[in-house]
From TrEMBL, chain A:
This is PadR family transcriptional regulator. InterPro entries: Metal_resp_DNA-bind_regulator, Tscrpt_reg_PadR_N, WH-like_DNA-bd_sf, WH_DNA-bd_sf. Coiled coil: none annotated. Residues 19-89 form the Transcription regulator PadR N-terminal domain.
From TrEMBL, chain B:
Residues 108-165 form the Phage shock protein PspC N-terminal domain. Its main location: membrane. Residues 227-367 form the PspC-related transmembrane region domain. GO terms for cellular component: plasma membrane. It is found in: Cell membrane. This is Uncharacterized protein.
Length: 113, 603
């Protein structure tokens, strides 16, 4: 068991959830999603997101449409599909439960110390 | 000063320095390799290119500005190293298609492991692939090379065809571990990726430079318009037909793999067989291996054996090599192309070999173009009323029956233990003569490319006969030294027999006589075992039954044959044969035979 494995898995596990969350209310293109994730320091390099987006799209959670850009190539605007929204809802509650659980466990530990 | 290249990145036009271009290209290639097709490789690459294009666009103030290596480096640091693109599959196990995806990423791929190589890394690559220690693979190679010699060929092939594991992702794939972030990090921590890799990559980039520049120009022109259209189509969700297509593709792939295995088996067996025969023939030219002499003797053109075998090897081997290659290509997805130069070299070799073989063939044919005869004449006397018996004699050494075979040559050792060619191509011809003494003429013939060779070969035919107590004993075979090769050697024995002489041909001569009386020949193979009196250009059979009885009837109870006449209608019968006449009915029996006539009534 290496610390790197665990770290990477932790981060990657939430990444999918975070991408869906970014798109919860409005469609966004890759650079915008990236901006949000990078601001939150969830991503170090951009490359990671592309296979994830494709995977989510292929799983039917996301769809996209093309929009022209004035300053570059046309952009893919991603948005949640109906299944994506349900998926996100489910993930949301799971996350909350998880957060609670982790909070309880970790705070207990500090108390006992 | 720097040369620049024009590129089209996601439909946007950029000027880019050549070194920066190469770096970018290498980067994109490396990313491409970290994905399999099932993960949506092309779509991911498209997205990444679009993003890079955007990032470049932000860095270019006007369209005359050139992208330099600095910008490329910046973009790469933003986008991350190829390893960063990989998705840890374990996390997505519950995803619908994950089981399939997992299989495809964790399956091993064959690469050459140049980090642990002795020569080219083929062995250690194979060792990873089969999950055994490299030492066993190397031992197997040594055995193969000394055992059959084919190992060498196979090794070179694998060296050429199996790509080297360059990126970390490839190195992980090679060992069959699932490609995920943790594994990649581990490899990097282990110092797997070292300085030499970088040096190699740079070297390769320079090599590829010339090719890439020309390609980039044509690519730029192609990509601009197509992209938008195809994207709008792709954005529609997966339809029913996609699914049907997937199923069909799946079966097609299985079928293709099957064909691939078949092709590999055919190709490799043919190549191995060829290599073995080439080696043995080539060696036989220097060391004499018994049994191979036959091939050498058939080779009348005197073209060096090694040249013919080499030509034949390429003429047959090249097509089979391509079969083999095709098979490998269908089986191993990431197989490197052998390259245009190699393909054209092989094609050229093949053509040269075919032409060479045609030339050899013409030489071989011209060898038989001249037929020269060497005639040896011997006379011997026969007194007038003697009967001349004629029979053939074989030779135990040559294991021949008394059957003439045209152009059938064999090798054997004669009674002195010397190697000889023998053949049963002997013709016996009988002609009548008005001279008072009989003459036997032995006519030997052989083919040769020129007059001298032919006459030399004809002269070298050994053929013997002897006359003993009124019996002419003819050899049923001819022999010659193997040096003379198979050049259609033939012996005609012509007997000039005075009129009124009586001949008796033993049954052993049957096969050596003509079927018909052509060219003044008067004795045919139907005349054996009879006493024949020679007339002027004809014979008279002295002991043949008068008027050959040829009528044969056998219908409805009526039989007429050499035994006689037999009529039987079930109730009455009539028999006429050498015993006499016998008639039988319900009421009367009549017998006429040597005992006289006997008539008796039944009951």
């Amino acid at each position: 068991m290496k610390i790197e494995n665990t770290k990477a898995q932790m981060r990657k596990g939430v990444l999918e959830f975070c991408i869906l969350s970014v798109l919860k209310d409005n469609a966004a293109y890759v650079a915008e999603i990236l901006g949000t994730l990078k601001d939150a320091k969830l991503l170090v390099v951009e490359g990671t997101i592309y296979p994830l987006l494709t995977r989510l799209k292929n799983a039917g959670l996301l769809s996209y449409k093309w929009e022209e850009s004035t300053s570059g190539p046309p952009r893919k605007y991603y948005e949640l599909t109906e299944t994506g929204k349900l998926f996100l809802k489910e993930l949301d509650s799971t996350w909350n439960e998880l957060q609670n659980a982790v909070n309880i466990v970790t705070s207990q530990k500090t108390k006992t110390k | 000063m720097n040369k620049t290249v024009n590129i089209n990145l996601a439909g946007i036009f950029f000027h880019i320095d050549e070194d920066a271009y190469l770096k970018l290209q290498h980067y994109l290639e490396a990313i491409k390799r970290s994905f399999t097709n099932s993960q949506g490789q092309s779509e991911i690459i498209e997205d990444i290119e679009a993003r890079i294009s955007e990032l470049f666009n932000e860095r270019v103030q006007n369209n005359k500005q050139v992208i330099r290596i600095k910008e490329v480096d910046e973009v790469i640091s933003i986008m991350g190293q190829p390893e960063d693109y990989l998705v840890d599959d374990e996390i997505f196990e519950d995803e619908p298609q994950s089981s399939y995806k997992k299989k495809s990423t964790t399956s091993k791929k064959l690469f050459r492991d140049t980090d642990n190589s002795y020569i080219s890394g083929v062995s250690s690559g194979l060792a990873h692939y089969f999950g055994i220690d490299a030492i066993w693979v190397r031992l197997a190679w040594i055995l193969l090379i000394f055992g059959a010699g084919t190992g060498f060929l196979l090794y070179i092939l694998l060296w050429i065809l199996v790509p080297e594991a360059k990126t970390t992702a490839e190195k992980i794939m090679m060992t069959g571990e699932p490609v995920n972030i943790s594994n990649i990090e581990k490899k990097i921590k282990d110092g797997f990726e070292n300085v030499t890799d970088v040096a190699k990559n740079v070297g390769e980039s320079i090599g590829a430079a010339a090719k890439n520049v020309s390609e980039s120009v044509s690519n730029a022109a192609k990509n601009v318009n197509v992209k938008k259209q195809s994207n709008s189509i792709k954005s529609s969700s997966k339809t029913f037909f996609d699914t049907v297509g997937d199923v069909i593709m799946f079966f097609f792939k299985i079928f293709a793999k099957f064909i691939g295995v078949l092709l590999i088996i055919i190709g490799s067996f043919a190549l191995i067989a060829l290599a073995v025969s080439l080696l043995s023939l080539g060696v036989a030219d220097i060391i004499h291996i018994p049994g191979l002499d036959l091939v050498d003797i058939a080779n009348t053109g005197n073209t060096p054996m090694w040249l013919i075998s080499l030509l034949a090897f390429f003429a047959i081997g090249v097509p089979f090599f391509f079969l083999f290659y095709l098979g490998l290509k269908t089986l191993i997805n990431n197989l490197k192309s052998i390259g245009k130069i190699a393909k054209f070299t092989l094609l050229g070799l093949w053509l040269i070999s075919i032409i060479g073989l045609v030339i050899v063939g013409i030489r071989q044919a011209s060898e038989h173009a001249f037929e020269e005869h060497f005639i040896e004449k011997t006379e011997f006397p026969i007194t007038f009323n003697d009967t001349l018996n004629i029979k053939m004699i074989g030779n135990d050494n040559f294991n021949l029956g008394f059957h003439r075979r045209h152009n059938d040559f064999k090798l054997a050792h004669n009674e002195n233990g010397n190697k000889v060619i023998y053949s049963s191509d002997i013709n016996v011809i009988v002609k009548s003569t008005t001279d008072s003494i009989a003459t036997i003429v032995i006519k030997k013939s052989a083919d040769g490319r020129d007059y001298d060779t032919a006459i030399e070969r004809a002269k070298n035919i050994n053929y013997n006969f002897q006359l003993k107590n009124n019996t002419l004993i003819l050899n049923s075979y001819l022999t010659t030294n193997p040096e003379n090769k198979f050049s259609d050697q033939e012996v005609n024995v012509i007997l000039y027999i005075p009129i009124h002489t009586i001949l008796y041909f033993n049954s052993t001569t049957k096969s050596y006589l003509y079927h018909s009386r052509r060219n003044d020949n008067i004795v045919t193979n139907r005349n054996t075992n009879h006493y024949l009196k020679i007339l002027d250009n004809d014979i008279e059979c002295l002991d043949c039954p008068d008027g050959d009885f040829k009528i044969k009837v056998n219908t409805n109870g009526v039989k007429i044959n050499e035994d006689g006449i037999d009529i039987n209608d079930g109730e009455n019968s009539l028999k006429i044969n050498e015993d006499g006449i016998r008639v039988k009915s319900d009421e009367v029996k009549v017998n006429i035979d040597s005992n006289g006539i006997k008539i008796e009534t039944v009951k």
